[in-house]
Predict the structure.
Amino acid sequence: MISNKKKAVIHIAKAQVGMKEAEYRDLLSSVGAETSKDLTDKTFDRLMGQFQRLGFKTTSKTRSKRNVSNLPHGKKALMKKLEAIILDMGLTWGYVDAIAKKRFEVETAQWLGPEDLLKLVQMMVTHQNRQHKKERKLENT
């Protein structure tokens, strides 16, 4: 069973894309659920992917964790690399999403295609290397 917060996101997505109740029920059944109470975290992710394809855009500013299990293999590896960099540098997904929005004009880094995601990872690696270089320099003084 999913959290009430996730149920609320589903209903926000439903309203945002202008979905009628019958269409919503069909969409739920396409992921193997009759109601939102039947959803698991995995089926929730699949459902949200469907909503995104229908035009849903999240407005959430805070994300502590991204689900990368439903991404293509190459993209999944890049998202894991990005997550490792974020953790190492003490940053947030909001920081990375802001870069993705400014540089690639998408709301979240997770929506980037593999090529743009690779560019974002390369940018973050450069940023990470600079930060480590500064830290080493401070330690030696």
Summary: Residues 25 and 34 are 7 Å apart (CA to CA).
